[in-house]
Amino acid sequence: MGESMDNCVFCKIVRGEIPATVVFQDELTLAFMDIGSVNPGHMLVAAKPHVENLQGMDEALACAMFRSAARAARAIESACAPAGISVYQANGVAAGQTVFHAHIHVLPRWENDGLTFTWPVKNPPREELEKVAAQLRTAL
Ligand code: AMP
Ligand code: ZN
Questions:
Q1: Which amino acid residue places its CA nearest to atom 5 of ligand 1?
Q2: Separation CA 9–CA 103 (nearest Å)
């Protein structure tokens, strides 16, 4: 086992070495309450294997992660009856990631709950979209 896994807080939770309030799990994912919950019912779905980010997930893990996020959302819907649900997933410091073990936030939302997110729309011309899309297709 690599050193990053020894020191990783979510690996420690997966191994049961530090406490967590677990809601459900399956072979590849563990869903537990976020210790810094923004709203009541705020859950994290973490990968059981140590992968740093979305880009590091193989197909089976990516499928399992989103399946568990949907399961968490259904549980939140039933138990918390929120006005909405946000899904948030950060990859890299610039994206706001603070725990470098892949996880998805599933977050009950209410009107004016204080969570804000700026979305600086650029509306680039079609040619720019086409140019980046071509680069992305090549990268697939
Ligand atoms: P981010 O990497 O920005 O998605 O944020 C990591 C999230 O993990 C934060 O919302 C923290 O509150 C949460 N977190 C960090 N440590 C723990 C822990 N030991 N148990 C539960 N949640 C945690
Ligand atoms: Zn880890």
A1: 98
A2: 12
